[in-house]
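Below is a typical protein record.
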Amino acid sequence: MKIKIRLNQILFFLIFISIFALSLAYISQYFFGLLPCKLCLYERKPFIAIIAICLLILVFFKTKKAKKLAVCLSLFFLLINASIAIYHVGVEQKIFKLSEGCNSTIENYTSMEELKKLLAHAPLARCDDPQFFFLGLSMAALNIFYCLAIFFITIFLYRNTKK
């Protein structure tokens, strides 16, 4: 017996998994003091885009074509997120060189005024220094697996939608 899924259910699933991922990120930041780096903040944006797209389609554009487009765009944003996370893990593992935005420039100041400017524009945490590990994996590495798992689950669900 094959279970048939509706496109609305897939969109609600994508909203839920995106809210879940963002909730974990914000809880780790605000309740456990794990400050995000610039790349961590970039990894949140695709989840925000998925929520916005899916909600927009569910509320305003209720056609089947629009819902399919929302699923495809969500899949695209999951791959973008996984790509950012792969780069982030590469930075953490010193495979890729740190970008300028991830370098700490606070050590190089000559006056108090310059220090204030540097602090105002400094990233919250270094991109190459993961603060938390679970099962030996950094949060960026976990995000890769999370995004790819959701990507393949969504494809499976989409293939089982009612025609």
Observations:
- Residues 43 and 134 are 18 Å apart (CA to CA).
- Helices lie at 7-30, 38-59, 64-92, 112-121, 139-159.
